[in-house]
Amino acid sequence: MNDGPVNAGKAPKKERMRFVSAEQVAQLAGVSRSAVSRTFTPGASVAPATREKVLRAAEELGYHVNDLARGVLANQSRLVGIVATRPEVGFRAHLAAALAKSLIRRGSIPILINTGQTEEELLAAQKMLIGHRAEAIIILSGSPPASFLELAQRNGQPLVVIGRSEPDADHVRAGNSEASRKAATAFYDSGRRRLAVIGSHTGTPAIVERESAFLSAAETFGASVTLVRGGDSDYDGGVTAGRVLLAEKTRPDAVFCANDQIAFGLMDVLRLEAQLRVPEDVAVIGFDDVPESAWLSYQLTTFRQDPLTMAQRAVALLERRLENPDSPPAYERVIPELVIRQSFRP
Predict the structure, then answer these.
(1) Do 193 and 257 fall within a single domain?
(2) Distance between CA atoms of 227 and 324, rounded to whole angstroms?
(3) Is 285 exposed, middle or buried (0-12, 13-18, 19+ CB in 10 A)?
(4) How many independent structural domains does the chain possess?
(5) Do 44 and 120 share a domain, yes or no?
(6) Are 314 and 101 in contact (CB under 8 A)?
(7) Which residue numbers delimit the HTH lacI-type domain (predicted)?
(8) 5 CB-near residues (< 8 Å, 6+ apart)
């Protein structure tokens, strides 16, 4: 005979998480439910004594207003979608973090939407963003196709794009062309004549602009220049492109990389596989100035994009659009600064 408890061996029943309600605050404060609502509604009329009782009860219970529910009832939302593909990679990760910080400071609620890389994932992301009636959308470079932007615009959602240009959308872009030409000039002025640029097959607007501007400047100087593309604009893409470069008949003596992740992969191939010295044998310049660029392992000379500056410009455009929905599209351009480290010193 088993004398153990009846429920022995059964998993304990999980209690449903319960938030403190406005009704509980009203009961503790001894006021009506509507008095609680008026207390937490800016500009609403409520007697000072009632307000004090409500605030005291709310603090005791740990009550917070359900902003999401309030936004749904008012057919308004403080959600702002940050849309990106592979938001965990490189500069995008730092830009997404800076956007979230700037939006929270503004009083918005950032929601990160990872579009994924398949049609099924993209459709799910679209439904998520439209279904939650985001107040606005900020799209990062190279992320979703034009259909995603068109859907947002058809639903009347203000749109800011970063790192790409889209019709009828406000946008923030880095000075890719200026930086790329400056890289080619710096290499040439330092006596480097066998130049190369590494991009990627992703073909994002920013990558394409950097590739073409560097090629154009190098050809203007009369330097020999090689274009190599990795599979993606990440570390593995840099490794792949670096191996292709080393297989060429003529090895370059200076390489401009479309971003820092690519530069890291290239530098490891040069030093660890080919036993070459950076910058003595091959100089390297990157783009973005992610924190790893300053690591002792790399000490990468690179063009700095300040994620906080980009985020603040994007949020400012967003506020302008919300205040003036019919104003013409605005354009912000942020020129990157060359940060000199050990991989190349002009």
Answers:
(1) yes
(2) 44
(3) buried
(4) 3
(5) no
(6) no
(7) 20-74
(8) none
d(CA 317, CA 158): 10
- Our CA angle for 219, 220, 226, nearest 5°, is 15
> Is residue 41 located within the same domain as residue 101?
no
Q: Could you say which of 37, 65, 93 is where a domain stops? A: 65
The answer to whether residues 192 and 250 belong to one domain is yes
Task: Give how far Cα 99 sits from Cα of 149, 262, 346, Å.
Answer: 19, 24, 33
74 occurs within a structural domain? no
> Interhelix angle for 146-154 vs 119-131, to 10°?
20
89 and 157 together in one domain: yes
Tell me: do 165 and 206 sit in the same domain: no
Q: In the beta sheet, which residues pair with residue 287?
A: 303
What is the domain-level CATH number for residue 271? 3.40.50.2300
SS (H, E, C) 111-164: EEEECCCCHHHHHHHHHHHHHCCCCEEEEECCCCCHHHHHHHHHCCCCEEEECC
Q: Which domain holds residue 54?
A: 22-65
The pTM is what?
A: 0.77
Report pLDDT digits (tens) over 188-241. 999 999 999 999 988 788 899 999 999 999 999 999 999 999 988 899 999 999
pLDDT digits (tens, 9 = 90+) for 10-49: 545 544 546 677 788 888 888 888 888 788 776 678 888 8
Strands 109-114, 79-84: pairing kind: parallel
pLDDT at position 202, please? Answer: 83
Q: Is residue 263 part of a domain?
A: yes
Residue 40 and residue 231: Cα distance in Å, rounded? 53
Residue 97 lies in a domain: yes
Say which range, 61-70, 175-184, 210-219, 304-313, has the weakest mean pLDDT. Answer: 61-70
In which band, very low, low, confident or very high, does the pLDDT at 126 lie, cut at 50, 70 and 90? Answer: low
Residue 36's CATH number:
1.10.260.40
The closest of 247, 255, 203 to 226, measured between CA atoms, is 255
